[in-house]
Amino acid sequence: MTVTKRNFSKRYIEPSTFKKMPVCRRPGSTPSTSVRRATAPVSLSREESAELEALAQLLPPHNRHLNNDPCLILQAAAQYIDQLRTTIAARVRNRTLPADAISKIFQLQGVVRANKRKNKSKQS
């Protein structure tokens, strides 16, 4: 059996050669947070902005003050939908809601997907 020698000298670095990182005076502040990146303004059509306003009206009151930011409104809507689906699943599991309720939700998803397939085949 042969034993190969490894050269460990490459891995060892003298402590004096370590680069010293700049010390931030404030806890939690980093250079990346102090630099603000410019964001491109979002321009929506009238139809899109009307749909966005309608979606914002469907959200719970504590999520309506999102300063008309489309990204935040869509994110809040997605979270609200997830919360509703989780609540329905929990109520069906606890038998406080009939099992048909959750099957109807999944049937609606199937209808939406089928409609999308029909629209794609018509466009082709």
Secondary structure: elements and pairs:
Blueprint: H1 31-34, H2 46-58, H3 70-93, H4 99-123
Helix pairs in contact: 2-3
Features of the shown structure:
flat, single chain, mainly alpha, 124 residues, 0% strand
Q: What is the β-strand count?
A: 0
Shape: flat
Alpha-carbon distance between the two ends: 68 Å
Radius of gyration: 28 Å
Order of helices and strands: HHHH
Number of helices: 4
Query: Main β-sheet: number of strands, strand sense, barrel status?
Result: none
- Which percent band covers the strand fraction? under 5%
Low-confidence parts: none
Mean of the pLDDT scores? 71
Helix content: 40-55%
> Could you say which structural class the secondary elements and strand pairing correspond to?
mainly alpha
How do you describe this structure in short?
53% of the residues lie in helices and 0% in strands. The chain is mostly helical. It has a domain at 47-123.
Could you please describe the fold and organization of this structure?
By secondary structure, the chain is an all-alpha fold. The chain has a domain at 47-123. The protein has helices spanning 31-34, 46-58, 70-93, 99-123. α2 (46-58) packs parallel to α3. The longest helix has 25 residues, at 99-123. The chain is flat, with a radius of gyration of 28 Å. Residues 21-42 are annotated as: Disordered.
